[in-house]
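Researcher: Let's try something more involved. This one mixes different molecule types, so please make sure each is placed in the same coordinate frame as the others.
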Amino acid sequence: MNTVHTGGTPDVLLQLLSPAGVRLADADLDPWVAEMTGNDLAALYRDMVVVRRIDAEATALQRQGELGLWPPLLGQEAAQIGSGRALRADDFVFSSYRENAVAWCRGVAPTDILRVWRGTAQSGWDPLVHRMATPSIIIGAQTLHATGWAMGARFDGADSVAVAYFGDGATSEGDVNEALVFAASFQAPVVFFCQNNHWAISEPVGLQARAGIAGRAPGFGIPSLRIDGNDILAVMAATRLALNRARTGGGPTFIEAVTYRMGPHTTADDPTRYRPAAELEEWAKKDPILRLGRLLDSLGLLTPELEAETQAVADATAAELRAGCIGLPDPEPLTVLANVYATPHTGIDRQRAEYAAYLASFEPTGGKDS
Amino acid sequence: MTIETIRSSPLPAANGQAPVPLTETTTLTLAKAINAGLRRAMLDDPKVVLLGEDIGALGGVFRVTSDLLAEFGPNRVVDTPLAESAIIGTAVGLAYRGYRPVCEIQFDGFIFPGFDQIVSQVARFHYRTQGALRMPITIRVPFGGGIGAAEHHSESPEAYFTHTSGLRVVAVSNPQDAYSLIRQAIASDDPVLFFEPKRRYHVAGPVSPQLGESFERARVVAAGTDVTLLTYGALVSTATDAALAAADDGISVEVIDLRSLSPIDYATVEASIRKTGRLVVTHEASRSGGLGGEIIAEVTERCFDYLEAAPVRVTGFDIPYPTAKLEGHHLPDLDRMLDGVDRVLGRRR
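Model: All components are placed in one shared frame. Result:
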């Protein structure tokens, strides 16, 4: 396998789809997308359009005061949908907070994705139901969780795979480096999926890495792939390749998906303070949705029917998201003291009883002065 | 080494010293008692796995995991690379899969590289997920001084963890509790920081195979009527000696071994103070922000009217842990405890 780098710096950027939408050949990646049909491509296109719409609607909800914060994924749709759609139901995702499109692939309801950002819950969904962990806000911490889960999969003799999503900034964290050591030592079935989106808030990737990020993994004994993260076919093929290595006892694989965060870090960020406008314009030309659209168009598949249907799904999802978000109930006051422990804890139980009594002391007047 | 080679390699031959299952009361050292408790938990539940540095062939630097690799194999006694954050972080991932990991942190002072995973992840997952995900992780920590060790090998970091909600914190003082409480800690669906008094590892005592009462209950080690002397871990033995010495002076000291540091069994503490009216808290950890201050504040809120005198703390100083030849000045000993007893009785200022 020529494109899985076992040493040196893999500076080749693997592509199956040029920015102009031209299908490129790659002997190593092609087999992993060989059976894809026009319908499959249309489904990926629809996914990307819908998650971009979710992103735009959530940003609008934040601007309107309905969300406290939102971390946009604009520009990273191919990296997230291409990898997320390569997973099996029994695999397990451990992500950062920007992988909202991966959550979409894992069947998380769009409204549930917003709970954390509206502040009604710290986990938008049950991680065991969707087999996607509560996104980690501490940068890189989840890569260790993925590795531990994968070690357990090996102990259990299962062929399920853990996928750790993280960004270029996270590669500087100790946890990510420890995860690579453990994954290599125990040959854990884990895929390290790094979205190099070029910016960690205001810090450019060059501050995290003087040499290519994918080039680090072989030093840990982990083969790596450096792919065009805005090329959904390359992303899907590379992820499938890595998943297959993990399932068949090949151990961990590191994928660097080179992409671009076209929006701010979060809605509280202002990239104009640190990022040249020309850079954004360059990356806009490599937009992942435009690119797949061009391929579909060249195949005669970007029909008015597909466009209309995609638009309808996006509209319906956005409407569901908006209504769901605004309709999310505030949590009951005493849930602030719920679930700190799984079993009764006298300290917390006492504080809950005291606070319940305090709240109840207002009840005759409904908390207002009479 | 790959998993394949780990799994296919023959298990190391047992050296004949593996403990027989504990079926009747047996005299064991504290270290052997934990070993027996770990073994019992591993026999009872195949999801119990051990993670740590040097815990396999060596059996841990204190030999607490001796012979467990031979009996249970490398998928259950996992010698890890040297990375504390990863020991805790991979335990989180294993807990996601339904495992009950038991992590060994080699020495108290080495826990801090794993601190973020403990306080930001392990402690919070149940709360964060509204109860969807449990973290039945036990983190074993040899703690405390008195062994003439180099820096980072003698510390008492328990207050960092009692300050962190979502964790249970236990400190054992004797072989019976070591056996019973390690089993309870592993069986707990909450994460437990399990502090082992390293200078007491090789002190033997009777151990029955019973689980005993809940690890949340403090234990009255010696009944008394004049002063309550509250402690945990290695100092329980010193406090018991202090009570004997005080008795020679006609002072009746009640010694309480807290056992659980979070939550604290204030019912037992309060009952004692209502009887004695005087409280001395002693721990090796530094004074400021330590457990002693917290306990005295809580006791003051709960039973101020029963206190005959201002409570007294006998603790380590607010210093980084000192060099071996100075640690005798830092660690509360029998005489400093008696001084505290005298002060709370107004016999000394």
